Write the structure tokens for this entry.
Amino acid sequence: MPDRAPHTSGVMSIEKDWIDYNGHLNMAYYTVLFDRAGDVVSAELGMGPRYAATRGLTTYTAEIHVCYVRELHLGDRLRATFQLLDHDEKRLHAFQELRHADEGWLAATCETLTLHIDMGGPRGGPKGGPRVAPFPADVLERVEAMRALHASLPRPKQAGRAIAIKRR
């Protein structure tokens, strides 16, 4: 279980194939970087690849909001933070920042709503497929511990933003 707030990833690098024709990181790969950093947190909470393979449980992202703040280029080294803003028995609401590892400036933010999924859900029903399900007690205990640790952090000012054209 992480003992720091917010959780901070190891250093990540940009891959050459992620650079677009404008000479900077293509927008899709910001999400890849956030996802990779989030995977580490999921594993620390007990919900990594083994969780899916052995328990038939996993998480799905239901909603994501990425804000691009500053361009990234090949050679930039990055770290991502992860702050658990809220949770209930089936969902996680998190906020991440992607920062330059050496200079500290903010490159992007990412707010997500994640659902806990039972992959063994009814497949023969009218809709079929996996279903949203409560966290098992051991995982919920780790989620609650992270939330308690992160409760002392200020709420990010970008959290809860909506997309709109503001009219005067």
Remarks:
- The mean pLDDT is 92.
- The first helix runs from residue 27 to 44.
- Residues 7-150 form a domain with the Thiol Ester Dehydrase; Chain A fold (CATH 3.10.129.10).
- The CA atoms of residues 1 and 44 lie 5 Å apart.
